[in-house]
Write a structure and sequence with these properties.
By secondary structure, the chain is an all-alpha fold. It is about 80% helix and about 0% strand. The protein has nine helices and no strands. α5 packs parallel to α7 and α6 (about 90-105) runs antiparallel to α7 (about 110-120).
Length: about 160
Amino acid sequence: DQNDMRLEGLFDILSKTKSDIQINEVTSSIWDIWHETNDPSIEADFYRGLESMRTGDLLMAVAFFTRVVEKNPNFAEGWNKRATVYYMLGKFDASMMDIHETLKLEPRHFGAMDGMSLIFIHLEQFGKAIDIYDQMLEIIPKDSSTILKKQMLRNRLSESA
């Protein structure tokens, strides 16, 4: 989970690397760690929630992830996954609330931050989305995907001005 000791070294690499390949490898390793529940009481529900997401049964996914966060409110990825499903359902307020819970537990959660930026973009609050991308770039300074998204939003803002 978000308290795993391996994360410190991985986030340190992300803060220094300039290689897109290494960024992708390290972020993938971080996601793998975040998906480790280390809690038998939530493991089955978490993986059933992931499977429900994969098959498009979003209401069932919400139910499973709700059970996860009720049983273990300190598991950041349970909140993040439910936030993702709420986003997919168009429930942006609920998604944003779960993103805030995720970020309380794991302030470096670039996935939750990206979800927050998508909500701000949907709400046409482009300046707020850019602010989130700036926060993401503090974690992964050379992430070309985030740099590109930020630049596209800046271009959009300058075109509308």
